[in-house]
Write a structure and sequence with these properties.
The structure is a homodimer of 232-residue chains. In chain A, α1 packs across α4. The longest helix of chain A has 16 residues. With 232 residues, the first copy, chain A, is of the alpha+beta class. Chain A has five helices and twelve strands. In chain A, the strands form four sheets. In chain A, strands 1-12-2-8-9 form a five-stranded mixed beta sheet. A three-stranded antiparallel beta sheet of chain A has the order 4-5-6. Chain A has a two-stranded antiparallel sheet with strand order 3-7. In chain A, β5 and β6 form a beta hairpin. Helix content of chain A is 22%, strand content 25%. The N and C termini of chain A lie far apart (39 Å). The mean pLDDT of chain A is 93. Chain A has two domains: 164 residues, 60s Ribosomal Protein L30, Chain: A (2-Layer Sandwich); 56 residues, CofE-like domain (CofE-like fold). The interface between A and B is large, with 73 and 73 residues.
Chain lengths: 232, 232
């Protein structure tokens, strides 16, 4: 195993609707003289993806409660101001992922409509500019059942198998690993958060040195069906 | 922000009861000429901690069902062979953390009795050898509600504030961040897993370049009280 590097991308400007994130990122890296390597994994925070896709809503025109309903497939739990919802994509998180931090005042930011498509669009455009294969993960900060605090998870991905499966493999004692499937894109999203601080502006990290499988599978692989879940 | 490095520790031998993990790690790093830096974070997999603390159980002498009961405060869900239990520490995970992979055949491995104490012991001994301050996280691979696949989480820690709180801080749009508390030790555990593959023997990773707060708080901070949890 080699070491893994998590490299913050500095200098991404404030993102507006219709900005092309792949082009902006490529230009910023060129300007900063950051080299791009084959199989770099780009972790891009949902906030700038949503902004580039026009998902900001002016709360003087939109009602937050109605936005929450339209972004949710189902309300899972509710207590006072805290709502845990299943989003239209199938993610279970606070307020259906609607965010009021790192946006203009009196504005709410919705999740991208199809984060896997957003990831794929970034990947294809960036690859055409940089001429090396990369993978892309769109991340968001989620709370968890049973554990306090939030962590970054993957809500979209492109070009990387989201699961590192050990099923059918054997450990060094020759035991078959019959239940181990690592949600590697979630771990990559969490690793990226280590260089993305909430109060400063680092919305993208590059993770280098991870040996991953190229794949057409997306972050949807991590969504467990309701009927398989113990906690719905 | 600087980049963060996740460095695998190669060459840790098979661990036996009463082995001193801090001393063994220090010797291995010296032999491999890996430098140790101030504020390095050592992520140590639960498996070698449990082995060093004599937590292996011979299944010809112990009954797995009885072990599961004695390791659990409460059985949360059960379906066929799959049991989700709350461990005596308060973690909610499959089979109360009892593991049958990466151990000798017909053997089960229990979680350390007090992973924070294990982390603290490693930290103190290592610091006395290396003469620099470090932090230590004990990690284990857990499944999650709602999301498929497992990720590494922190079950013990020493010398690092487990939560990176933004409450009372402001983002670049001057919005107060009133709900953001990052479970940074869980993200560090996940980052470490990227260099700890299940079928090869890398039970320790060093994470370098993360700016963290020294603290007497432990991984217990991440355990949510039953009466605050929506999903119990």
């Amino acid at each position: 195993m080699n070491e893994v590097r998590v490299i913050p991308v500095q200098g991404i400007p404030e993102i507006k609707t219709d900005d092309n994130l792949a082009e902006i990122t490529f230009e910023v890296l060129k300007k900063n003289k950051v080299t791009i390597e084959k199989n770099d994994i780009f972790v891009v925070t949902q906030k700038i993806v949503s902004k580039s896709e026009g998902m900001e809503r002016d709360l003087s025109k939109f009602n937050l409660e109605e936005l929450l309903q339209s972004e949710s497939k189902k309300i899972i739990r509710k207590r006072g101001d805290l709502v845990i919802a299943k989003t239209n994509h199938g993610f279970i998180c606070a307020n259906a992922g609607i965010d009021k931090s790192n946006v203009r005042k009196n504005t709410a930011l919705l999740l991208p409509e199809d984060p896997n498509k957003s990831a794929n669009k970034f990947q294809k455009r960036f690859e055409s500019l940089a001429n090396v294969p990369i993978a892309v993960i769109i991340s968001d900060t989620f709370g968890r059942a049973w554990r306090k605090g939030q962590v970054n998870f993957a809500i979209g991905s492109s070009g990387i198998n989201p699961i590192d499966s050990y099923i059918g493999k054997f450990d060094s004692f020759d035991n078959e690993l019959n239940a181990t499937e690592i949600a590697v894109i979630d771990e990559l999203a969490s690793a990226a958060e280590l260089v993305m601080k909430k109060t400063i502006d680092i919305p993208i990290a590059i993770i280098r040195g991870v040996d991953y499988e190229n794949s057409k599978l997306t972050a949807n692989e991590l969504i467990r069906d309701d009927n398989e879940d113990f906690f719905l």
